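Render this sequence as a predicted structure.
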Amino acid sequence: MTPRTDNPSMSDQAPLNHPQSKADLFWSFTILALQGFGGVLAVVQRELVEKKRWMSREQFIEDWAVAQILPGPNVINLSLMIGGRYFGLAGAMAGVAGMLTAPLVVVLLLAAAFGGVSDAAWAQGALRGMGAVSAGLIAATGLKMISALRANPMGMPVCMGLAVASFIGVGVLRWPLAYVLLGTGLVACSWAYAQLAKQALAGKRP
C-alpha cells in the first residue's frame, strides 16, 4: 500500500515512506514509546514526520487532531490509525502492542524503584523539573507545526483564533474539555465545510 499523497503542498517534497511490515510497525512504535517521557507529542512528530517520513506535517496535524478528540490516549489512537491504514486490524494491533509492551515493563520497574524514595525532596524536585521540560517540548512542537496550517482551507487567522479560544476555554477559564470541543469544534467544522464547498464550486466554474 502506498502512502497518501493527495495533499497539494507535498508536490515539492521528497516522496513519503511507509511501514514495511507489521514487525516494522511494532518496533518503530516501541522505540517511539521508550522516548516518550511526558513530551510524547514532540517525539511522535519527530519520529513519524521528520525521521521515518510516514506522513507529512499536514497529514500529521490532521491525524493527531482526530486522535486528540477520540477517547483514550492520543498516541495510542494514532498508532491504531496508522497500523490499520497499512495492515488492517493486524497492523492496528501491532502498533498498539509496540506502544504498550516495553513501556509497561519500564513503568513497573520504575514504580518498584521509586516507591521507596517518592517522598524525598530530590525525587519531588526531579518530577517537577521533568514536568517543565515536557511542557517546553510540547510547546516547541506546536510552534514548529504552525506553518503547516497555511495550507488549511480554513485559513491561518481562523485557525489561530480557534486555537486561542480553545486555550482560553481550557487553560484560563477551566471549562470542561468536552464543552470546549463541542463549541470550537462545531465552529471549525462548519467553517471548514463552507470553505471546502466554496473551493469545490469555484473549481467547477469554466
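Summary. Residues 66 and 168 are 21 Å apart (CA to CA). The radius of gyration is 20 Å.
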